[in-house]
Amino acid sequence: MYINPYVYLFIPLACALPGKIDAEGDDLVSEKLSTSTPAADRHTAEPSSSSSNLATETKYEWNSNGYVIFCPCMGRFGNQADHYLGAIAFAKAIGRILVLPPWRTYRNVGFNEWFKVEPLQEYLPVILAEDFMKQLAPKYWPPGKRSGWCWQSQQSGITTCDMKEGNPFGPFWDGLDVDFDDYVVYHISYDDYEIDQWKTRYPPDKYPVMAFKGAPARFPILEKHRHLHKYLQWSDTIMEEAYEYINRTFPGQKYVGIHLRNEVDWERACEHAEGEKTYMASTQCFAAHAGKTVTKKMCLPSKEEVLRLTKNVVISTRAKHVYVATDKNPMIAELEEHLKSQKVKVHHLDPWLPQIDLAILGQADHFIGNCISSFSAFVKRERDAKNKPTSFWGFS
Hints:
This protein is an alpha/beta fold and 396 residues long. The chain is 32% helix and 13% strand.
């Protein structure tokens, strides 16, 4: 059965207001414990000297293989990251250069504010959207010759894309100073079996820039694309702030990172989770467990489940600290009382930028996440790339 590749793209974005950037939530759409390795030197390690912000501007020349750019406009950061990895795979498969779009919060956030560009260049040719618009677009993709791309069903008869209708679509493209003069409406998917059609129907000499309304990718992320997360590496700025907190709070000591989703909207979403084969980011747990279905306990673990699994992991890792990232209740008092005999300290930073939470969780000796959350899924993929252990509420 053919699946509309845009089926999840038209969900309103819960944009944050200026101030603390909200990347915690997931869109509401339809292990046995491993023993952690000893505390590594990474707790006192310095970030890489490589920097994504070069002192001198790199000069780019036009590449005749063509370019792909898209709006990462589905939901908050965890969902955008899923789509980003799928778009990376798509650009690689069709042999085009990926124009790295800014992340979308209440504003456009340049890709290199949060991530390094250099690791991605090991996998495929890329260029920052800001560099593309400044250096290449005026000559090779000028105003008057900019087409917006979108999927529409053949039966609909729709021939336009509404590329800038609503938020975040309009503000995203406005942030890059892009207006569209024409549209390319396509009817093929992003699946492997149709990749050759992209190459033959849309050759780069005729279609030099593919500017997609949303990411040319499936959501949730396909299992075969998870490994691409190893190329998504935090910028020095993010890691410096994360390491500063780690070194100050857990000096040379082991810590367990946990992610709790327990605000009201999440509770409502979990009411529909029971018995589903896939629900939001649940495939991160089920990839190796065919036949499993989602339970409410996985989506919204009870206090008893949180205390049980956290204690088991603390004991198995001999950790002295627990770090809590959450959208509402960090359960500090309950956790400290339950872990009193282990003499464990519980910490909750609530940083201004949730990406700091993600970076800290990624460095933990063990991570416990929520199977359904794409925020947890981001941490899981990062840790998988580094062979770090992860467990899940109601599943491990």
